[in-house]
Structures are given as C-alpha cells and as structure tokens.
Amino acid sequence: MHLNTETKPKLLWLQGVTCNGNSHSFLNLESLEQLLDKFELLYHPLLASTFSLSEITSLQNSCDILIFEGTYDPEFTRNNIPLKEILPYYALHAEHIIALGTCASFGGMFQSLAPERNSGLLYKVEEEGGPLIAYKKRVINLSGCPVHPEWLATTLQMLLAKHTIVVDDLQRPRELYSSLAHHGCTRNEYFEWKVDTKGFGLKEGCLFYEQGCRAPLTHASCNTILWNEVSSKTRVGTPCFGCTEPSFPRTNYFQTKTNMSIPQDVPLGVSKRAYLTVAGMAKTFHIKRLEGVLIDYKRDH
Amino acid sequence: MITKEIIDHIEGEASLYFEMQEKRVDFVTVVFPHFRGMENMLKGKSALDALVITPRVCGICGHAHLMATVRAIEDAYKNSGHPIEVSNKAQNMRELTLTLEIIQNHLKWLYLVLIPQLNNFENITLSLTPLKGAYGASLATKALAILAGQWPHSSYMIPGGVTSDPTYIELMQLRAHLEKLSDFLEKETLGTTVQNFLSFESCKNFNKIASDVSSVEQALFDLRMHKKGFSHDDFIVLGEHRFTQIAKSRATRLYNVDITKVHVEDAFSPQEKSYAKNALYKNAFYETGPLARLISKDVKLIKNMHRRYKDSNYTRAMARIYEMVYLLQHSLDLVKEIDITQDSCTKSVTLSKVTAQGIGVVEAPRGPLIHKIKLKEGIIERYEIITPTQWNISSGTKLKPSPAQKAMIGLNKQEAEFVFRTFDVCSVCTTH
Fold first, then answer.
1. Is the CB of residue A14 less than 8 Å from the CB of residue A86?
2. Residue closest to B331 by CA, chosen among B216, B175, B202, B187
3. Which homologous superfamily is A10-177 in?
4. A207-259 pLDDT, tens per residue?
5. How far is A290 from chain B (nearest CA, A)?
6. Domain ranges of chain A
7. What percent of chain B has pLDDT over 70?
8. Three-state secondary-structure class, residue B306
9. Burial, B88: exposed, middle or buried (Cβ in 10 Å; 0-12, 13-18, 19+)?
10. What percent of chain A has pLDDT above 70?
11. At what angle do helices B62-79 and B88-108 cross, to 10 degrees?
12. CATH number of the domain bearing residue B15
C-alpha cells in the first residue's frame, strides 16, 4: 500500500488512555470534509468509518497512516484487547505513524498514572523509551493538549503530497513547531518593554513575569495559527501552559517561578545575562502609553 | 444466558451484559472498563492547577469541568471566610461559554450518534450527514473561543471571574458567529426559524416542517419510541444557571433538593470490574440532562410531550434536540447582557489563606456535574468528581435499576442499545 495510488490511503485512528480532546479538536477543522475525502477512514472514535471497533481489534486489516491519540499504556485495552497487541500490529506496516497530542508524543497528562509503564509512542517524557522507538523515522510527533486541527491537517496534506517533513529533535514538524507560542502574541509589545499585567482579566500587560506564561519557552504556533480560527490563550489573558512540551503537565500554571523577582526560566535560547541586561534596561524607561489602559470603557460611560 | 456487547462511539466505550428472555431484555448491567484516576492526580497540587487539569477529564465537556472547578474553589474561599465577588459580566461570560459547549455537544449527538443509530433500524432511511453536526458544532466553539481562547481545553475561568476582557468588536464577532449558527440550524436542521421552533407547543407542530429534525421525529414515532424506553420518571437538576431550575421532580411536579444528600456507591457489575460509581440522591436514582432541565423550566412543548408520552425514549431524544435550540436563544440573549464596563476579574486574598472545603455544581451537557475540593493552605488535599453519566447510567441491581437500565428492560437488543445511546453516554467522564 502506498500513498497517491488510485485507492485512497487508509487512515486508522486508534486511542490509548485519552480524554478524546484531540478527536474533538479535529472536528473543528474548517476544511474537514475536503480533508476526509482524501482518505478511507478505517476507524475513528467519533466519525462513521469502514470498520467497527471489534473488527479493528480483531487485527486482520492494515492501514497506511496510523494516528494514535492518548498515552500508551501497554495493559490498556480496547475491546478487551491490550494496546501492546493492537499498536505493534498496525505500526508494523503503516507507512506513517502520527503520535497525536502530548499524551501520545511524550506521555502527557496520563503518564503519571502508571509512570513505570506509560509513555508516548517514542518518548517517555523527554527520554526515548516508547514502544515504537525502532520505527522512529516513520513516526511524527504532533504535541499539544489538544493538537490544533490545522496542525494535523497540514501534516496529513504534506504526507499526501509526499513533501519531506523536516522534524525537530523531538520528531515534531518544524513547519509547525519551529517558532514559539510567543510569536504573534498580541501582548508582545508589553514583553519587549517589560510591562507586566496588573492582574488577570485585563487587556494590557505581559503574562510572563507573574502569571506563569510559558509562551517564550514553548514550541507551538498557537498565536500564528489561531485556535478555532479566532483566538488563543494569551489573547484572552490566559497564560500559555507549555502544553506542547515534554514537561507538560507542569505545576503552578498561574504563577511565574522567580528568583529575586526575576523569572527563573528566561526565553528559550537567550542567556540569563543577555535577558537581565535587556530587561533591566527596558525597565528603566517608563512608557506612558504602555502603562495606561487601552480603552477606558468606564470613563466613557 | 448473559451476552456481552461492546458499545463504542460514546466518548470511549462501555460493555453491556444482557440477560435476555424470549429475545427481550430481562436485565442488563453496565460496565465502564477504563480508569484514569484524575482525582488522585490533583492531590498535593495548588487549587489553581485544577483549572488546567480537570478540563482534560473530557474532550467534549471539559468546559463544564472548568466551571465546576472554579465554582468549587470560590466556594472554598467563601467557606474560609474570604468570599469572592464575581461581576455580572464574568458570570454572563461563564454561562455563555458553558451554554455554547452544550450546544456543540447536542449537535454532535444528533448527527454523529442519533441519526446514524436510527438509520441502523430496518425501514428507517435518513440521510447521513455527520459532518453537518461537526460544522455546526465548530460554529458554536468558534463563538466560545472568542471569550475563552480555545475549545477544547480552555482554562479562562479563574477564581474572581475570567481572564478575558472582550472589546465591542469581539462581542460583535461572537454575535455574528451565533447568527451564522442560527441560520445554519434553521436551514439545515430545523426547517423553520428558531423563533417558530421555540414556539412549538405540541408534537403536531413537527408535521408542518420538513427537515432533519422532523425526519428524526417521524423515525422515532415509526419505531414506536414514544411507547418504549420508559424509566423512573424521576428527574434531578442540581446546577445553578439561568437556563434551568434546581429541583428534583416526580414526573413534572417539582420539589426542593439539598446537594448534601447526593452520594455515590459501587456499581453492581458481577461479570466484570466497572470503574464507574453510581450516583444517587437520598438513595434513589434520578434521570438527568435536557429532559430534566426543560421540565424544571416548565417548557410547554416538553411538558406536552411528557403528558402524552411520559419519559419515553421519544421524549428523551426530542428534549435533547429542543434544548439545543432553546440554549441558542439563551446565548443570543446573554451576549447582549455582557456589560464590558464591568471588571472581568476581581482580586481575592492569596490562595494560601484558604483552608476549607468547597463544592462546585454545574449543569454539563448530560446533567449535573459535581466537583468537591478540600484545601489546606491552598493545596488540594482531596478532590472528588461526580459526573452526569454516573446518574443516568449507573449500574444497579434487578430490584433497583438505574434510569438507563430501567429504560432498556423489555426491549429487544437493538432497541435497548439505541435507548442506551439516547442518554448520550460519556464514558471518559464517568471513569475520570
């Protein structure tokens, strides 16, 4: 079975320990119909598909693209068949395997339930220790909790078009994970001039200094490919939780860890010295425009 | 003889163990086989971390979990002597986004579950358009994301209010998406205007429209679902919102409820270990969800349906469809009420001063969702979640069956599985 033959490539969507979040996120895709039209859907947990769960778990078919959603727990069952039997069976012949979501990529939210045996397909948090490590070249990690539907759609389209997918050192497409969640954040100017927000529920100010925002340390395109086509966490004043990284889930999401009131983790790739120099300098200037409110609805009422 | 059926496409899977007699269900037990242990995961973490973790209990109703968490934390604040005031603006925004999540849920259930399942019956031919459901749902979640940043898995509700501070432009965009959803529903689903649909007072009104909804209504009749799937006729609503009223009801007669009388017990599942616990009120089972909520609000059409067809599967299914439209109107009204001159979030004392218990109750798509939190200096000592499916699809004994068990007894297997799905099962929530 190869892509771009006359028959449509066969797509199988399999789940480990999951909340169904990626399945539901995918349904938000605006071009869902057009994309699905290009594949034969062997099984999907929500959508109508060629086979039933019991047919899929009888292990008699094969797929071209295997999407795996959720944490891999070898003992977890689908239709009473453990994943340690289902996953290797389909992975053996699949041309491409997509680890969909942070759970499938690194273990994610459900890694800690059975830390000794749970993992992503390739990684156990940051270390290689997943069941498909021998197939690494065929596995693409799409991390995110959940994954943005466009990220999956882009990846599937690239596979269809036989484009080379350049990946980072965690096997994620650079196309989607080369920049940071910080890129495109509407609060960037506040970040540049080190103006922190005065609390939650405000349009003004940066969430990096006190509110726990991980956007300058997180590989994700949330602020360039907007969520539900309209927004993102930081645009609605919620800090980025760093959900695309192996370290997710973290703790203390709404608070920045600081040492002597300086963020403990500085933006990715920037030395602490460089950061402190620039931050210190920026802070000496008081820019009135950035310290006031953008729109004073109260005054005008 | 007991036969086992695996049910999937229910936000996970469940097993039904049927005891049949002359091809009719004599008794059935329900098993939810997958356990995750989210409550344990929360122990020892800051209360605010629950705002990020609990939405991840469920991909389809995570927003309801978020709201239950924020209400539980705010209740703990209150019980520790530090009450938090939440502005009307933030309350309206919370209710609006919760409502939109329910709408997306019901739309998916209609097109991805109900219609395909109806079509499996002999002599029923409905057009299968699952992606209509996905598209309509995406319009609802787009509107939701304008306030909440994203769906699924937003964490924009925090103690004191919400993190977002919308502008007029954003509210107008939100309204435009809702109007688009309204047009879509009128054209693709209802076959009439939202206004006209909501003015229906009798089942006969459906005869005057030709649409997906009228075809579904006809199919339910053709399958005699108005004579099948009867349950206890006892309902309960526990979440406080403007679109419903807290009450339990015997048929359509309402009574007061006391949240402290809710308790859970182990499921009865002799064949296989089930990780779901049964939820009860004063030791009795109650049906939850759209039918319960619309009865509590005295909605004419639903009361009429109930008068004629009681808590049959017809009434149950039609209530879910009706509520989708009812809530769309409610969300359009809510957008108008968001007063952007008010604060989005009020400041509260530091969390480390909070040593108390709290309870948060909301109406999720399938009924009451209860979160209980116990905090010591802001750190979670205990967290407990009771989900709607634990009410509807408890697994009780033959002498004391749950609403779904009772509704399946006496039917053939295909009908029973269909009735099971009309409760809109959420497996992932149930075995949080």
1. yes
2. B175
3. NADH:ubiquinone oxidoreductase-like, 20kDa subunit (3.40.50.700)
4. 999 999 999 999 999 999 999 999 999 999 999 999 999 999 999 999 999 98
5. 17
6. 10-177, 179-293
7. 100
8. helix
9. exposed
10. 97
11. 150
12. 1.10.645.10
User: Which chain B residue has its CA at the smallest distance from A77's CA?
Assistant: B34
State the pLDDT confidence band at B9, using cuts at 50, 70 and 90: confident
Give the ipTM of the model, two decimals please.
Answer: 0.96
CA distance B183 to B189: 10
The vertex-A202 CA angle with A196 and A204, nearest 5°, equals 45
Model confidence at A300, pLDDT cuts 50, 70, 90, reads: low
* Pairing relationship of beta strands B277-281 and B262-266 according to DSSP bridges: antiparallel
Taking an 8 Å cut-off on Cβ atoms, the answer to whether A20 and B149 are in contact is: no
Is residue A4 over pLDDT 70?
no
Interface list for B 88-107 with A (CB within 8 A): 90
Query: From the centroid of its chain, how far is CA A269?
Result: 20
- Segment B377-383 mean pLDDT: 98
pLDDT on residue A6: 63
Q: Which of A186, A223, A219 minimizes the C-alpha distance to A205?
A: A186
User: What pLDDT is recorded for position A1?
Assistant: 45
Number of domains in chain B: 1
Class of domain A179-293 (CATH, top level): few secondary structures
Residue A146, preceding peptide bond in cis (omega within 30° of 0): yes
A132 in contact with B, Cβ within 8 Å: no
Cα distance between residue B118 and residue A286, in whole Å: 66
